[in-house]
Amino acid sequence: ASQAAQTVMALLLLCTLLALLPPRLAGGQAGQHHDYDMLCDNIIQHAQQAARMFNAGDTAAAMRQSDLARKAFDTAAASFPHEPQAFANYATFLLNSQRFDEAAPLFDKAIRLVRESGGADDMVAALQGMKQTAAFGKHSVARDRAYAGGQGNLSEALEHAQRQAAVFDSPEVHHDIGTLALMLGGHRAATSVLDTSQHRDEHRDGSTLLQESMQGFAHAQTVSVSAWLAGQRAMGKTCSNECSGAVQPTLASWVKHDTCEVLQRLDGRGDQSNAEGGHPGDTAGGTASSTSDTNTVPAPTTLMRDTRGRVFSTAAAFRWQVSDVAVMALRPRQGDVLGLSGSSGVVTHEAGGRAPGCCQVWLSPSAGVYQNLVQHLHMLATWKAAGGRGAPWHNPGTPEHPVPPPLAPHKVPRVRRLATVLQFAVSSFYHFVAEAVGRLLLLLPLLDDDATLKLLLPGPPPRPRFVHQILELVGVDTSRVLWDHGGRGPHGSRVAVTDTLYVVEWDPPTPAGVGGDDTASDVARAVLKPHSEAQPHFAVPPVLLQLTRRTLVGKAHNNNNNN
Question: What average pLDDT does the segment 52-80 reach?
Fold first, then answer.
């Protein structure tokens, strides 16, 4: 957060602390306690001035104001050693200045004095929460320094992230732990069996780190869903216990859900006959052919280079279990709505009002554990609740709010029926062409059959040019399109669907062992192959790639002939 944002939050916390202090101080009694209150106010005023000067680039003036704040604190602490306010004020200033080690003992002193003076339990809880924030901030700064933009010590950065998670069970941090462990695990798994002399942490080899990575991503989703549910209830919605939580990120979980209807199901392997001169998954070093008894395709033999530039092969030691692709219709229960939140279009089933309803997050199978919910959902930051106190609101892309932001449900677009291709990283050219276009092509027949059906596409201004080019190529009338505005405002959902939401989903293909001899490092090497060296891109079922290739190439060819 910026220094200015931190200052605003610090002042709000100071106001809260003042309101919770014992009455004999909060009331500003005459005489010596009036002098004490003035000293405490001076700490706040000098802290404000220090922040303003720092933000203006006048470091010397900021340091002078910081020294004056310290002097006001020293005078107050020496004259009134048994009063907590000065300790709380100055500790908050130190926290805001990222002087975490200095702030922690002052918070401890303030907590002890509040208890001794009979202060409110809420005051103690607030101070304890701020002390936790200081510990969290200390590890956060140390982690950023170790990470150094991805060029530093990843092992040390991971350790600091884990210490952060020990302070606050933050989904943001757990997702970062997953990312860091994946980066480390991919490197170690790819090199451990090639260079046994290389120094490695025997207790955290590539396989262990990859497991930690998946656990970090999954835990981030669990905490996020719980925080989202808390937010729904805080907004006055009654969430039924029997249908609240998460729909798991597997195609089977979606298909068996009673609000889901499968309209079309495609064999994920696609055309295995090589009739068009080559399977889209072929590489120069291998072929892809179907098997008669399993929904798998052999992995191609691909040459890769390790971190020292040596070449090795991923020879087809295992096959890839390929998922079907399903076109599905999701329908909310009576009185409820389906929401789409964030730039990835996270699907939520939300209670329509105060009557009991379903509150569920539909975790995308194709995105799996990598879907970062905290970046997309409006939720109550329950991981920051201290001592049972109310948690702040977390809005993706905006500062946290100490109170619920104003909700305006009437401003959220409401549509009866909607088809969506929003997904992970949908605005990137690669993901749009490799995945979203296949979704779009499978949804086009529904648009042809229903003139009222709208199509949700990525389009925050300026809209990606390639999106318009592909729409023109496949013949989609833009008047049928509901453009995702890309904003991250205070509303729970970006779009609310009252009748039917059409989606296309699949499970990511996974390696299936042949002969049972594969090591975790073998699997990791194949899963983490660089896209530039590994074809096909196994995150997408071949049938989807074939559909995209045939359609776009065919239409482009026809357009060229017509011209």
Answer: 91
